[in-house]
Amino acid sequence: MTEHDTNQIQLPGDTEDPGGGMTWLLGLASTFLLISVLIATNAMFYHVAAYATTDKEIGAYSVAAELMREERKTQLEQEPYWEAWTDIDGELTGERALHVPMDTAADIVVKRWGGASK
Asked: pTM value?
């Protein structure tokens, strides 16, 4: 082929592909950088996870949650009782309500509607 067949002018020292050495160098440097970033990100994640489980400070939310769990536990351990709302004169202002702990209520439901089918 001649120069006129391709419509391109070849300059001296011009090659079609870049040099192989620079391609390898850039590829290896990019690979090393990517692996370094992944390892650093992974190390930071596990450091924060370990800090959250071992050195966790007690915050207001965890204290409030613990108080709520204790209150629910004491409510479950109470005996059934009637609650009535009265006004200042002592007259009943609404319906009386029976408060039954969940364990006792479950036993009542099983006794009343549980058992063998007829």
From this structure: 0.36
Confidence of residue 33 (pLDDT cuts 50, 70, 90): very high
CA angle 63, 65, 69 (to 5 degrees): 115
Average predicted confidence (pLDDT) for the chain:
80
- Is the distance from CB of 118 to CB of 99 less than 8 angstroms? no
Taking CB atoms within 8 Å and a gap of at least 24, the contacts of 103-111 are: 103/76, 104/80
Contact 77, 61 (CB under 8 A): no
At which residue do the structure tokens 């596990």 appear? 46
- Helix residue ranges per DSSP H, 10-59: 20-54
**Amino acid at position 76, single letter:** L
Amino acid at 83: E
Please tell me the distance from the alpha carbon of residue 14 to that of residue 79, in angstroms, as a whole number: 95
